[in-house]
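Narrative summary of target 7.
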Amino acid sequence: MFDQAQKELLTLRDLMRFAVSRFNQADLFFGHGTDNAWDEAAYLLLHTLHLPPDDLDTYIDARLTSDERAEVLKVIERRINGRLPAAYLTNEAWLGDYRFYVDERVIVPRSHIAELLREQLSPWVVDPWAVSSVLDLCTGSGCLAILAAHAFPESKIDAVDLSTDALAVARRNVDDYELGARLRLVESDAFAGIQGQRYDLIISNPPYVNAESMAALPEEYRREPEMALASGEDGLDLVRIILKEAANHLNPDGLLVVEIGHNRDELEMAFPETLFTWLDTSAGDRHVFLLRCKDLPART
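Modeled conformation, tokenized:
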């Protein structure tokens, strides 16, 4: 099939149609930046051809060289046969206007906290320039730490992860944004490596997938590091640690912001006396909570 396509398909339009047909035939899962075969094909083909990502119409009827067709078909084949998220094929992911290098050592960035940082956590943070210290727990690729550095220009950032592989990816992104003087990467199991440190703000997009959901994940999600997704039977193992220990690492007026996926009901049942503030995002108000230091449920 791909050999025939190499010989007979000539234009970008031809290859777009071919990619969409093959993606639908293969019943691929889309959830790492796109939600349908057409958008996924457009992104992958334009990236492979070094064309602007938002200008498909201009080039749709352009003829491709034999070498270009071969490259495009190779990407289509890898997406299908490997069930690889598109971000792993292009080695990039976007959060708003910010581009990050990614590969299979980290999950593909997709945090709702990113959109809150674009608004500098208003109205909860009154003066973004007064935020002097931020912790990004479970930093992965470093994307939220980098967004926090831009949101709070006077802050120093600690970005923590247990995975040395993830921290290597984060280092590349920190260097790309020239933030080495302000952003420190720390290998640590939760708070263990930052004892004695306190922050004005702690943000975290921790592992939060429960055991039942892990067992049902599409193949594309199984290509991501399991340790960055799974968090015990109910998905709250690491969130419990965060809630238990965060007060020891927040300044008295500090804020904790955590993403928990679809676990709001489970969290509120586990901590019935804690008054979580649920933040509005494009996905609704069930995925990210905020707590002030004084409202945390436990201190050690």
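The mean pLDDT is 95.
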